[in-house]
């Protein structure tokens, strides 16, 4: 199993600003995933972050809007840039272990 | 479109009753997993069933998989108030590179 510390747990931000979310894993992992969960919806994969390479983004998500860093095997950040109220969601990082996902506790973002 | 569609969207039962949730998917899978989410926070893995398996048990959980119908069900027996949560199925697609695609979720409420 993996323990993931994600912060901040929640934030309220102004339109046009950016927020960086951090995830720290207690063990070295190759693949980290960033998901978005809009209010009352399911999880949608934003991107896959592998250490030492560019993140791979899913359809509908672009690097300029959601830049990701993966400096080592235990840490990753996701930035939500130039935010609008439509970005209000829960953002979740996760890692793969033994074929299943372990999740951080999520970041609840509200954009005014 | 969403890979996994779940029904019902919401389910309310009395403590001690059984709860059954269903998941349908569209394409070939390596495995199907069920996750639980409390109050919009991080998800917790419950059970994984591989494409060559038909049924698995874990405590009060029973999962079935019918690949010919592209469907799965999660049964929670003798439900408790603490089982109140959202439940999501997630599929690892054949050739999908370890990515999981989540279903629409079922909100379960267990009342005393």
Would you give an account of this structure?
The complex is a heterodimer of chains A (112) and B (112). Chain A is mainly beta. Helix content of chain A is 0%, strand content 54%. Chain A has strands spanning 4-7, 10-13, 19-25, 31-37, 43-50, 56-57, 68-72, 75-80, 89-97, 100-103, 107-111. In chain A, the strands form two sheets. In chain A, strands 2, 4, 5, 6, 9, 10 and 11 form a seven-stranded mixed sheet that branches. Chain A is globular, with a radius of gyration of 13 Å. Chain A starts with a strand and ends with a strand. The mean pLDDT of chain A is 94. Chain B is an all-beta fold. Chain B is built from no helices and eleven strands. In chain B, the strands form two sheets. In chain B, strands 2, 4, 5, 9, 10 and 11 form a six-stranded mixed sheet that branches. The mean pLDDT of chain B is 93. The chains are: A mainly beta (112), B mainly beta (112).
């Amino acid at each position: 199993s993996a323990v993931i510390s994600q912060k901040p747990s929640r934030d309220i931000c102004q339109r046009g600003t950016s927020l960086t979310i951090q995830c720290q894993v207690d063990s070295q992992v190759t693949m980290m995933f960033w998901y978005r969960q809009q209010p009352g919806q399911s999880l949608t994969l934003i991107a896959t972050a592998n250490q030492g390479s560019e993140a791979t983004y899913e359809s509908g998500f672009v690097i300029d809007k959601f830049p990701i860093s993966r400096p080592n095997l235990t840490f990753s950040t996701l930035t939500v840039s130039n935010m609008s109220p439509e970005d209000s969601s829960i953002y979740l990082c996760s890692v793969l272990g033994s074929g299943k996902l372990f999740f951080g506790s999520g970041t609840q973002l509200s954009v005014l | 479109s969403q890979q996994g569609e779940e029904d019902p969207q919401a389910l309310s039962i009395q403590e001690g009753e059984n709860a059954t949730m269903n998941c349908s998917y569209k394409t070939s899978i390596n495995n199907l997993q069920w996750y639980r989410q409390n109050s919009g926070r991080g998800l917790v893995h419950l059970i994984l069933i591989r494409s060559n398996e038909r049924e698995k048990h874990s405590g009060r959980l029973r999962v079935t998989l019918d690949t010919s119908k592209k469907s799965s069900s999660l049964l929670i027996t003798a439900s408790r108030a603490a089982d109140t949560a959202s439940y999501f199925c997630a599929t690892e697609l054949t050739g999908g590179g370890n990515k999981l695609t989540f279903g629409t979720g079922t909100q379960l409420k267990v009342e005393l």
